[in-house]
Amino acid sequence: MIRWPLISTGALALLAGCVSYEPKPISVSDRAAQRMDARLDLDKIATESRQIAPDAPQNSAGLDRLALFVALVDHDAKVAQARAAIATAQAEARGSRQGPGPTFTLTSEYAKDPSTSSPWLLGAAVDLPLDIGGQRKARLDRADLAVLLARYDYAETLWSERMALRRALIDGEIARRQVALGTEILGLRDRQIAALERQVASGELAGALLSPYRALRAQELRALDDAGAKVVAARATVAGLLGVPVAALADKALVWETFDMPAGDPAAAIATDMRVKAVSGRADVLRALAAYDQTEADVRLEIAKQYPSLSLAPGFTWERGLVKLPLSVNLAFPSFDLNRAAIRTALAKRDEAGAAVEQVIAAAQAEIDAALIERRAAMAALDRLRGSELPQTRASADRAEARLTHGQIARADWADAQMAALAAQLGALDALARVQSADAALENALRRPLEGPETMIMPERLEAGR
């Protein structure tokens, strides 16, 4: 006799183990309000900085590059999204360990046969797919590689956001110095124009001669306004990367103590083996390699599909008073071409992924070469300005100062000499910006910081803290 209460109890137990749905709506207005009210926890940032870089000096004057990097890891929305993608890939990898579920079939039959004791036939069968062999291994390998891809995507996102932060700091530091020099130049220009206006008033000069100086003042004022706007834009970019409003940085200094002192030629410190390691360790190269490994898993999967899939189907039948226990073995055969078309496609995709790996490696090596060449040229230009033009214009300005003291030069000519020295400093600032941009490009090519407190970060501690 069929024990229906037992079957019902088992079905209820299975239902009780199911996960219930819990809605989790998102309020855009609430999220926007939270981000507008976000603030940086300086104590937490200092603690985490000591944890991931215990040997780095702690800067009390403001937020240095290490502190900003810690805040970036904690608050950047893109970094958080990439970190969540890792959790999703891990969950999917765990789910891939579960094979296909069984199929339960109930059958019944009514036959009015006077020779039998009962007209009914009742039966049940369970189809159990056997999750074994190459198909299972290929599926698991692909899921594990998806986790690896998510980790490489996270590393690449974190690095790209760090580079965006570095470039914003470069723009802000250069613009801040341009504002200081531009303000000084504008003050000298006003003094020069005032001196010339006195000469015009006394009849020593024609009034038309003032027009070029006033045009220069207007040009210098526009340059000063542009530099001031760049300072504001750079701080806004930094705030956006940190996930806080600009007001959260209003009372905080962004510190880069060695900004005006770039290191020497980095090529001497970058040996051939370091370049090989740098290319081999780049997240984009590793991602391309993991994508190639995925196509390898796809090839193994398609080859495994040449062979039939096996499943077992034990059952139970109550046939008009007689109990039977049937067992079926089911084979699912491949397509008529033995899956050769799918195998050829998988092989072609593997070749394409291999070519992609070669392309990424070649691009990385070319990027390193170009960055080294540009850095060397930029540093040569900065050295030339600092070694010749700056001392010469400074010496001319000092001579003009001495001559003015003795009444041997007009104040307008003295102002020209002082502004020429400041203009040379602006030129040196442009050269310094080029050097810093070249350093950023080289760091981006190597995917590693070359100087500053970030070089003291211990990656294992950074990952452990996350």
Account of the 3D structure:
This protein has helices at about 5-15, 30-35, 40-50, 65-75, 75-95, 135-200, 210-240, 270-280, 285-305, 340-405, 410-445, 460-465, and strands at about 105-110, 120-130, 310-320, 320-325, 325-330. It is of the alpha+beta class and about 475 residues long. The protein has a single domain (about 75-450), classed as Outer membrane efflux proteins (OEP), CATH 1.20.1600. Strands 1, 2, 3, 4 and 5 form a 5-stranded antiparallel β-sheet that branches. Helix 4 (about 65-75) packs across helix 6 (about 135-200) and helix 6 packs antiparallel against helix 7. The chain is elongated and about 140 Å long. It starts with a helix and ends with a helix.
TL;DR?
The chain has 12 helices and 5 strands.
Radius of gyration, whole Å: 36 Å
Low-confidence stretches: none
Distance between termini?
59 Å
**Class inferred from helices and paired strands:** alpha+beta
The gross shape turns out to be elongated
CATH topology tier name: Outer membrane efflux proteins (OEP)
What portion of residues is helical? 55-70%
Provide the β-strand percentage band.
5-15%
Number of helical elements: 12
What is the total number of structural domains?
1
